[in-house]
Design goal:
Blueprint (H helix, E strand, L loop, with lengths): L9 H16 L4 H12 L4 H26 L5
Length: 76
């Protein structure tokens, strides 16, 4: 839990502890969380963190849409 050294508020600490508990219960998601942490570490502000998350989510949605279109036989 090295990330606990950068806690900003009590709420932040509780959220990180809950995340760690969740990851202990779902170890298959640890690598995905590591990738998220790595990307967000480079953000210099809360706004930039939201932009990174938004862009990553949109990329995922577009990829899912392409796959669904292909499955439905309506490839681009």
């Amino acid at each position: 839990m090295a990330h606990l050294s950068v806690i900003r508020t009590d709420q932040h600490a509780k959220a990180l502890k809950a995340r760690d508990c969740f990851l202990r219960s779902h170890p298959e998601l640890r690598e995905f969380q590591r990738k998220i942490d790595e990307r967000l570490k480079k953000a210099s502000s809360g706004h930039n963190r939201l932009v990174i998350i938004h862009n990553w989510m949109m990329d995922s949605f577009f990829e899912l849409d392409r796959k669904l279109q292909n499955l439905a036989g309506n490839g681009y």
